[in-house]
Fold this protein.
Amino acid sequence: MKLEAHGWTLELLPALGGAVGALRHDGHDVLRPAPEGTADALATGCFPLVPYANRIAHGRFEFDGRAYRLPLNFGDHPHSLHGLGWKAEWTVVETGKDHATLAHAHDGSAGWPWPYRAEQRFVLAPGQMWIELSLTNAADAPMPAGIGLHPYFPCDAETHLTFTAERVWLADQTMLPTESAPADALGDWSATAPVAGTVLIDNAYDGWDGSAGIGQGWGRFAMRGEGARVLHLYRPPAADFFCIEPVSHPPDAVNRGGMDVLAPGATLALAMTLSV
């Protein structure tokens, strides 16, 4: 489905993890466009992270005195990744020229025993595109909860990035956090730095102030995250894209503290605004 308003073109792929297929403003790709006919949410422009973000170590965790096991859902990777929503089909709840709402309901299977409902609301406005992601606990018991958005931005030699955080989590070879370090340990992003590089960065920046600036050859735009204290930066070596993901918690937070707990009927929400 496609929305067009205020100079924006937004293509949504509800059946493919509720993902964004493309986002353009005045003909410029703000998000990386998905290949025509792709069946892989990881090849899209953005997808939701729900009911947890990033990794849960070996798919195992304990909550409220009980042990749980999630399927390993990312090839031969040793950890469960990105939640359940990106593997699910979302339904169209509402649509208009400049807005749409997608929903995903989980029945308490697939290793996550708490039923929940997630929604994404997309809004196009003059100079802004806004996504709100919400997660509501539909179980009759408390539920650990995490959410986030996983946008992919085009990257070339002209791409620059600016953001400020309190610290960065260094990681082991499987990208689980090991220790915190000063925020400039992998590059001084507060001073505006080129994104392209030859070393993998796949690290969580904690204490993020909620704003980031992205410079491309065609211009500069801003990203704002509300309800996200962590910004996860994913920069593969020599790739034509990078990700800065507003998320509610660092990787493996359910095993390390720092993950929200939702009472029955309670809702966790997060929003991302892109302003050109």
Observations:
- Residues 2-275 form a domain with the Beta-galactosidase; Chain A, domain 5 fold (CATH 2.70.98.10).
- Residues 2 and 102 are 13 Å apart (CA to CA).
